[in-house]
Amino acid sequence: MTPEALWNRYAAIWSLDASAREPEMLACLADDVTYCDPNGTIAGRAGLSAYMAGFKESMPGGRFKILSVLHHNDRSLARWALRQEDERVLQTGTSFGVISDGRLDAITGFFDPLAEPHHE
Predict the structure, then answer these.
(1) What is the pLDDT of residues 59-103, one digit of tens each?
(2) Starting from the edge strand earliest in sequence, which strands make up the sheet with 40-43, in order?
């Protein structure tokens, strides 16, 4: 799987129900995966799956779209947008990942600052 395909498959996991999420996590994430974003750090697929379930519950219809991927030497940087069902962008950011044996082993997500409403 190319880094682009891996990131796209991983991004789709965030929108899946628990039964569909587990086999995709097994395919995309190392057994001892670590995940870190501004909300905290998680170790292991089970913890990340629970975090994803909370995301899905709080953002029904939300989905991640990978915008671009840079990759070299098992290191990867993916730009993404979190979109609502109507395609409205809710958040953008970048995720850094270490890829080991074709799966993401360590993921760190960075959220872009949200644009402030412009008032005249």
Answers:
(1) 989 999 999 999 999 999 999 999 999 999 999 999 999 999 999
(2) 40-43, 29-37, 103-111, 89-100, 75-83, 63-72
Structure tokens belonging to residue 47:
């913890």
Reduced to 3 states (helix: H, G, I; strand: E, B; else coil), residue 118 is coil
Please give the model's pTM, rounded to 2 decimal places: 0.91
- CB within 8 Å of 118: residues ≥ 6 apart: none
Length of the chain: 120
Helix, strand, coil percentages for the chain (3-state, nearest 5): 30, 45, 25
Phi-psi region of 61 (alpha: psi -120 to 50; beta: other; left: phi over 0): left
